[in-house]
Specification:
By secondary structure, this protein is α+β, with helices and mostly antiparallel strands. The protein is 23% helix and 30% strand. The longest helix is centred in the middle third of the chain and has 11 residues, at 49-59. The protein is globular, with a radius of gyration of 15 Å.
Length: 87
């Protein structure tokens, strides 16, 4: 793993950032948590790459808020092509 930032998918829309922080803090110090509202996913930044690896291994495919979550290494955002205007 090359980063300490994790993608967390398949979140319940009712999951809070505090709940996510609590679940991940069992694997190390959590620096930040951000849930993308209405999208069912979020990001957790751990203090170290090792803590991120432990959290990924420990939480991937486990249940949180009644849903089986997916935890993976966060990828940088993809560049979007500029759309040509329609006339």
């Amino acid at each position: 793993m090359a980063t300490n930032k994790l993608y967390v998918g398949n979140l319940s829309y009712r999951t809070t950032e505090d709940e996510l922080r609590e679940a991940f803090s069992a694997y190390g110090n959590v620096l930040s948590v951000r849930i993308i509202e209405g999208r069912g996913f979020g990001f957790v930044e751990m203090e170290s790459i090792e803590a991120a690896e432990r959290a990924k291994d420990g939480l991937n495919e486990t249940e949180l808020g009644g849903r089986t979550i997916r935890v993976d290494e966060a990828q940088p955002p993809k560049k979007r092509e500029k759309r040509q205007p329609r006339y």
